[in-house]
Amino acid sequence: MSARHVERRPHCCLRGKGFVRIQCGELGSMEVGPRARVYAEVVPEVLDVAVKEFAGTEEMIQVGEKLFRPYDWERFDLLVLPPSFPYGGMENPRMVFLTPTMIKGDTSGVQVVAHELAHS
């Protein structure tokens, strides 16, 4: 969604490394919109706070679609990783990986979600 002139390829023809990411653990999830779900450890203080922090995800998708074009993927899910994850966020098709340091309780961490959305 971040450029006006994009070479379009069918999704089945994506090239490159890193299109498969696997996260395992005791995860829970909650919807934050019709196309977005937050996944996090099944620890109430992590999942519940993450859901509140990222509740505006669908609105971000809609703003991006108005500015650029329809979102290419069916879903834009968020996975809050353990504190050892070394980056703020990492975009992947259909799912963004986030460090729990993005959960600040005041929605100031959502700018990282918007940034990763622009990449995907």
Automatic annotation (TrEMBL):
SUPFAM superfamilies attached to this UniProt entry: Metalloproteases ('zincins'), catalytic domain
Top-rank taxon, per record: Eukaryota
Protein name per UniProt: Peptidase M1 membrane alanine aminopeptidase domain-containing protein
Binding site for Zn(2+): 115, 119
Cofactor note text: Binds 1 zinc ion per subunit.
One GO MF term: zinc ion binding
GO cellular component: cytosol
Coiled coil: none
Domain (Peptidase M1 membrane alanine aminopeptidase): residue spans on this chain: 58-120
One Pfam entry name: Peptidase_M1
Keyword field: Hydrolase, Metal-binding, Metalloprotease, Protease, Zinc
GO biological process: proteolysis
Record's keyword annotation contains rRNA-binding: no
Organism, as annotated: Anisodus tanguticus
Required cofactor(s): Zn(2+)
InterPro entries membership: M1_LTA4H (IPR034015), Peptidase_M1_dom (IPR014782)
Family: Belongs to the peptidase M1 family.
